[in-house]
Amino acid sequence: MQSRTARPTAPDSPEAHPHQDAAGLGVELATVVAGARRRAVRDGDRQVDTAHLLHSLLEQDPEVRSVVGGPPQLARLLGYLVQRSIGYGLRWQGSVEDSGAIAVVPRPATGEAGDWSPAAADALRQARERARRRGGHAADAPDLFAALVADPDSRAVEVLERAGIDARELSERISTLSADRSADRSADRSADRSADRSAERRAAWGAE
């Protein structure tokens, strides 16, 4: 007989550290955000920035990968992200994203609200706002990706450009993807309503 006792949550799992930044995010996007947070901690970065978010999106969301491009583009982009601790990324270690002139003492990110860079925090806010404009849905990965590429001064856009990927073209592709997803949601809702009406009619006939 199996025990019904809940297993203890692993210290590094998202459930072990409930965080207000998960509010308003869909399950998949909350996982992406948690992955970005873990990456920043693992790399010893002071803050979770937009490049961390981009890296986590590419690793965990197939729709975002499809928007970015084919295998050559993805390989080049991930290569830049993996090597952020060398080359062009070295100057990030002593600055805050959006405030490069302000020198800071690097310290590990803890995942608390103050550890998001200003640009990353704004991208999450914009993702939630996009979801609200759709009618109160939880924000998803394309919402966050759209917010990341909309900020031309973000580290995410800098990495995209270094990989030869035009952020403006990505914005157009994301808009198309979002429109398709909205159409699919509307079709699903219509199908659900139709099924409900059919069930009600069958129940009414059965009662006669």
Query: Percent of residues in helical segments?
Result: 55-70%
Note the main sheet: 2 strands, antiparallel
Q: Strand share of the residues?
A: under 5%
Number of helices: 8
Described by the principal axes of the CA atoms, the overall outline is globular
> Which whole number gives the mean pLDDT?
76
Can you count the beta strands? 2
Radius of gyration computed on alpha carbons: 21 Å
Tag the structure with descriptive keywords.
two-stranded antiparallel sheet, 8 helices, mainly alpha, disordered N terminus
Written description of the protein model:
The chain has 208 residues and is mainly alpha-helical. Helix content is 58%, strand content 3%. The chain contains eight helices and two strands. The protein has helices spanning 27-43, 50-60, 62-68, 71-82, 118-133, 141-149, 155-162, 167-207, and strands at residues 95-96, 99-103. The protein has a two-stranded antiparallel ribbon. Helix 1 (27-43) crosses helix 2. The chain is globular. The model is unreliable at 1-18 and 99-114 (pLDDT under 50).
Summarize the structure.
The chain has 208 residues and is mainly alpha-helical. The chain contains 8 helices and 2 strands, in the order ααααββαααα. Helix 2 crosses helix 4 (71-82), helix 2 (50-60) crosses helix 7 (155-162) and helix 6 (141-149) runs antiparallel to helix 8.
